[in-house]
């Protein structure tokens, strides 16, 4: 069924039937470090009408507390409990799988992943500390890897380099049973306000290319995080609405979880992407930006 | 049909029916900068028996003349005409496709690709000159890309970084009709003698991940290079034997082209890889290293 534009005719049906709005962040709340127009007022309106608000972000660069600080710095008050980031999801996945305490995790990605892993009591290394490591093949160099690494977590990493690719590849190829976990596989994202940049899907694919293995994906569109979300909020999935700018992560996640779905065109997806015959992911509704709800409410 | 180990019983059948031996380099002739045992004597024996010798390498880091120099430095005399590298294949692909002279090529890879493109009269940039470019997302930076780039060529690149990934992604996503060419998709290779390292398959997959497009592959197992090889050497494919250490590139290439195939276990493939039930690529013959032919001849 094709999507409906959000309008005065259908908005109250959606609004009245939804108890919790799940928002993606990049392309919905902000682009890079710039807030999208009307966001604070929209969130305020939703809270004033008693709606629960949750932020479900695939961007693993930050931890939940770092995201709460980012919201704060943009003038929006958000509790850490309202944030479900894919960095947190990676840590929760290892907890749920009873990751052995003597094993370590190698991280290709940001400080946020390391922070969430440490909060979960898991020993992790890599990430920013390997940002400046270089490889000179002419020196016949050898990368020695830690045999106790039992999982490699890969997320968005603007400091990607050949050392990290080699280290992660060695762990996955040579450590028996080593897990390969992707925070998400977004192709691109608004890492800055001015343009789109390669997302975690780029780094994850690189490791797929060198290991010839496929990862477990813990972020959207996987519904792994939903279990934790349901534990915090006593709302059934059918009374949730997932709001996002990406069809293949946000909208698919909402559909996989049985939520209502609203696509906003303020991020990576254009109306022509949505209506392209090759697209087979149709949200229930679409609109330009979340603040359109202000005019309709 | 499962492979036969090369033996006194079957060697003369192979040897007598073959006029040209096609050798892969990494893992067959050398590992990193170290020659594999017995290689010079084997090549000398083949030449003395009137066999033609060709080197077909997926490693795009060097140009044909740089490979000829590497052979020379290792004490082996090889003419540039005997070398078919995937860097050369990338340049020939663009020539065959009548790449417009006003368009440029962006390179993620080594100097060898740039050199072959220039020899073919094609304007190219990127590669080593972008090795040290850094991206600071906090500065809200913007990468401006050249709208006249009509092809992005991706090969092995130990200097891979986020700038190159962004530049290549922008060209492929935003320049209408921009080609995406992979020199090859080898997962790993012996970039040094001491261990395996992520190969071009890693960098190519990264760009697939960010662009959600699939490349044209010009190296093995694609038989694109065979057309040029046949032009140089007046030998039918059935009288050629492809000798390589990789099932999914070398042996598949040989089979795709209708050559006989010989797997050597001196590189990335082990005997247990070959005999694993999940492997469905069976060479005609296998042996430990090319110098085993010395004992059998």
From TrEMBL, chains A, B:
Write down the SUPFAM superfamilies for this protein, in alphabetical order.
HAD-like (SSF56784)
Write down the top EC class of this protein. hydrolase
Which cellular compartments is it found in?
Plastid, Chloroplast
Q: Which residues bind Mg(2+)?
A: 24, 26, 245
Task: Quote the record's binding site residues for substrate.
Answer: 220
Cofactor notes? Divalent metal ions. Mg(2+) is the most effective.
For this UniProt record, give its keywords in alphabetical order, as a comma-separated list. Acetylation, Chloroplast, Hydrolase, Magnesium, Metal-binding, Phosphoprotein, Photorespiration, Plastid, Transit peptide
Which cofactors does this protein require?
A: Mg(2+)
Molecular function in Gene Ontology: metal ion binding; phosphoglycolate phosphatase activity
Q: Name one GO cellular component term.
A: chloroplast
Q: What is the top-level taxon of the source organism?
A: Eukaryota
**Biological process according to GO:** photorespiration
Identify the EC number(s).
3.1.3.18
Family statement drawn from the similarity comment of this UniProt entry: Belongs to the HAD-like hydrolase superfamily. CbbY/CbbZ/Gph/YieH family.
**Role summary:** Photorespiratory enzyme that dephosphorylates the 2-phosphoglycolate produced by the RuBisCO oxygenation reaction.
The protein in question is named: Phosphoglycolate phosphatase
Lineage of origin = Eukaryota, Viridiplantae, Streptophyta, Embryophyta, Tracheophyta
